[in-house]
Amino acid sequence: MSQDSQFHLNAFLMGVGHHEAAWRHPRTEAHRVLDVAHFQELGRIAERGKLDSVFFADGLAVGPRIKHNTQAIFEPVTLLSAIAVATEHVGLIATASTSYSDPYTLARKFTSLDHISSGRAGWNIVTSAGADEAANFGVDGIPAHSGRYERAEEFVDVTLALWDSWEDGAVVLDPETGVFADPGKVHTIDHDGPRFRIKGPLNSPRSAQGRPLLVQAGSSESGKEFAARYAEAVFTAQRTLEQGQEFYRDLKARVVKHGRNAGDLKVLPGIVPFIADTEEEAKALEQSFTDLISPEYSLRQLSTMLGVDLTKHSLDAPLPPLPPLDEIQGNKSRYQLVKDLAADGSLTVRQLIGLLGGGRGHRTFAGTPEQVADELQTWFEQGAADGFNIMPPYLPGGLDDFVDRVVPILQQRGLFRTEYTATTLRGHYGLADVDNRFAGVVDEASA
Amino acid sequence: MSQDSQFHLNAFLMGVGHHEAAWRHPRTEAHRVLDVAHFQELGRIAERGKLDSVFFADGLAVGPRIKHNTQAIFEPVTLLSAIAVATEHVGLIATASTSYSDPYTLARKFTSLDHISSGRAGWNIVTSAGADEAANFGVDGIPAHSGRYERAEEFVDVTLALWDSWEDGAVVLDPETGVFADPGKVHTIDHDGPRFRIKGPLNSPRSAQGRPLLVQAGSSESGKEFAARYAEAVFTAQRTLEQGQEFYRDLKARVVKHGRNAGDLKVLPGIVPFIADTEEEAKALEQSFTDLISPEYSLRQLSTMLGVDLTKHSLDAPLPPLPPLDEIQGNKSRYQLVKDLAADGSLTVRQLIGLLGGGRGHRTFAGTPEQVADELQTWFEQGAADGFNIMPPYLPGGLDDFVDRVVPILQQRGLFRTEYTATTLRGHYGLADVDNRFAGVVDEASA
């Protein structure tokens, strides 16, 4: 069981819903994928439910998704900035890749969101695995898995240093003396590493929460080590309670091995909830989405996920044999998950696509509000979760239902906050203040 | 005289005002430099005045400004996103550098702002000249002037191609057939140049105005050629009507030489207006700001501007001899402007600092609302401007005064719009729709 008595909730938002056919379903209005007001509304709904945060994923290529998929229209930090000014409490997490950006630019972008939101920004750290993304940044083929993580580590180290480059209290703003900032509290970082040389300081002061929350979602061996070292929240796809418990134990042990407290990292498994008055209605609702899946799109999506071309494969035959894990340079954990699902050879490709349609490998759950609450409570109390990554299959309705029907039950059971008690995203997740490595350091340049 | 009967107005916004001592003056509240609501208010004031656009500059280093200067807290595109959702009409222009970013990332960021604002985004294209900025991106010393512009040209070419990679109408959004986008209208760009290799397409559809407005502010020889080729609006520092006319004639001739219409580029000289009921009061107001200048800060600022260390120089002696223009790798036009001001040797450094304090080389003008309006009308009618870059010395008051006291006079004289007649930023500036190079092209990959 978690150390905490209450758990955490993040709303993972995507277009008009996570289900890949969401935009075709009568419960959504497809055109809202292009409407910033839709996303502001989602932020306000999450805030009505006292959720810790909302989250937008991102990618740096269109990939195989052009024809049938609605994602990736807004760059998430610019989108979250528009949501920040329409909300007051909810945290704002965005994916950004360490593979194709500069630490100075990324640090600045997230600090800017952190200032705009008064300390509610979070960074989901990803490395970019795809050949499609590489081709938009002058790189041929698929970048090697290990090199991506080596770059990511140096990238995060230097980004953290930039976020420390202004101490708390560096901004003096004294009109009388004409002093804007105390140069003794603004530091160069003088980083000189294998991939980055950066002098600093960052051109923006420290934010209200010290620095943005660090989030991570890789579940490969390198991904888990990376998370254990840096992450404060982890999004993960776990399909059974046992798998969730094993992942939770494993990751917490790694966190402790890295000299951190187990509670310094919150494990948030994903769940795609279909909610209705009865279990039967919930399952029928899920089926109504599955029925709208476009096999052509799904085969391309699955091919990309596995790194195996399935676009000519029969929908009604089992999955062909897959290459061994160590040949995979892309998303290893998602690859393993699909391989496990298809292991006994009983699933046709069509059935597999149906299973993956809700949340691309994340667990779907169809039930009553009580059943959803029970499921979350069980995972939390049985040591599989510090909270959950809620992935509404359709939006805004699926988020409305979770907030208005499931959250009150969780609150009645004492499992979730009834009011915000902190003002920052780090505060919502119950994380300690961040020390600043430069606090009190006198460096020559600024003396 | 301009071809148009009305001119254009951009509000160049910076902290609590352009005057370097603005934040020390009783007409401002210094802490608002950190307050996003302040900047949203400025956007709404500009919109109340029916201004074409607001603009935020940017830099990628703290530079010599830490102690006495209040700039560069927010990254401008994230800031404009927050302003976009607080306004309906006014254009939103941000600086971004071609020196230290990737075209794919920059194209996406501005397209995202363009979607969030329904077609009101503009990009002020800059190259980064400073050693301080270079040191934050692994580059030693000051990048050569010519190399910066060569990179900028390829950068803009490929960014324009990315913005064309989705045709108008590519987004189908048909729930019945399950088609989100028409792959025949989404194109790879397959750019393979000396500095960038980018496949495309961009991961965001074409915006309501086709693509963001292109703005430029370099006035060096390379800068003017670059502007003549690409820019649709140019911000420029011109201190006298004659200099303004010469710049205007020169730039328009270059535009025509590049095969464009003279009207395809709008010339917007900067002006820092001190507005009061009488000329005497306006001049006293300006003096009250000059009196608050911190010489220590200004000497560092001037040293950076000139690339000459003046921090040990006496404030009451004339400027020392300056190196020839062709040795300058930084902002050549600003260098020449200061050199011209100091040419006859009669100005002390302190006097020079006072002259530059309002707008860092841009023209300051102190007078009544009628005198400010007269001045703008003269420049417009005498062939020195298609509009103006209004740089309020203090904010929000200085923008309030311009909007509430000068704009009505301009409207009465028929020189400025009384209502918005267009819905996009390109529309406000009277620019034609943008052709799409890929319209109707059938490429194999997507067929």
In total, the number of strands of chain A is 13
Oligomer: homodimer
Overall helicity of chain A: 25-40%
SSE pattern of chain A, N- to C-terminal: EHEHEHEHHEEEEEHEHEHHHHEHEHH
Question: What is the makeup of the main sheet of chain A?
Answer: 8 strands, parallel, barrel
Counting DSSP H or I runs of 4 or more residues, the number of helices of chain A is 14
- Summing up helix and strand content along with how strands pair, one would put the structural category of chain A as alpha/beta
- What top-tier CATH class of the largest domain in chain A fits best? Alpha Beta
CATH homologous superfamily annotation of the largest domain in chain A: Luciferase-like domain
Mean pLDDT over the full residue set of chain A: 91
**CATH T-level topology of the largest domain in chain A:** TIM Barrel
Distance between the termini of chain A: 50 Å
Widest sheet: strand ordering of chain A: 1-2-3-4-9-10-11-13
Q: What is the C-alpha radius of gyration of chain A, as a whole number of Å? A: 22 Å
> Per DSSP, what share of the residues of chain A sits in E-state strands of 2 or more residues?
5-15%
Compute the number of structural domains of chain A: 2
Q: Point out poorly predicted stretches of chain A.
A: none
Label the CATH architecture of the largest domain in chain A. Answer: Alpha-Beta Barrel
Largest two-chain interface: A-B, 73 and 73 residues
Give the overall form of chain A. Answer: globular
InterPro entries (chains A, B): Diverse_substr_monoxygenases (IPR051260), Luciferase-like_dom (IPR011251), Luciferase-like_sf (IPR036661), NTA_MOA (IPR016215)
Keywords (chains A, B): Flavoprotein, FMN, Monooxygenase, Oxidoreductase
Organism (chains A, B): Rhodococcus pseudokoreensis
Domain Luciferase-like (chains A, B): 30-384
